[in-house]
Amino acid sequence: MGAVFFYHLTDSPLEATLPMLVGKARGAGWRVLVRGRDQTLLKRLDDVLWQGPEDGFQPHGMAGGPHDADQPVLLGDMPSDGFSCVMSVAGADVTAGEVTTLERTCILFDGHDGAALDIARGQWKALTDAGCSAQYWAQEDGRWTKKAEK
Hints:
By secondary structure, the protein is α/β, with parallel strands linked by helices.
């Protein structure tokens, strides 16, 4: 059974945190879906992943292309079938059923956005009430600290 990790972004923006987490997931050998509903945001994240350092480049693509099944990292709003890890951005939905079938689920949310905080709190409650193992990580002085586990 997988676990869901919540990342409360306060010191580093999504554009800095996502590539780091994608790198860790790929280092574990996982195929990653970056799930979001906002195509403008996903395109911006696609650009960020293309601009990464040469030694940290993560091969990836936007969903809807002819080679989606071959992409080790795919950005889109689609089911998690065929992926080991889902990274939810900007409040994209994740179900308890998915969490249990994945190696890892990551929910990244902007700690300076009240609506994003409310969505993340709702996701925490729904997923932990459904029996999912969850961890809550927050940034302190530029470092990630586990603040809660259920």
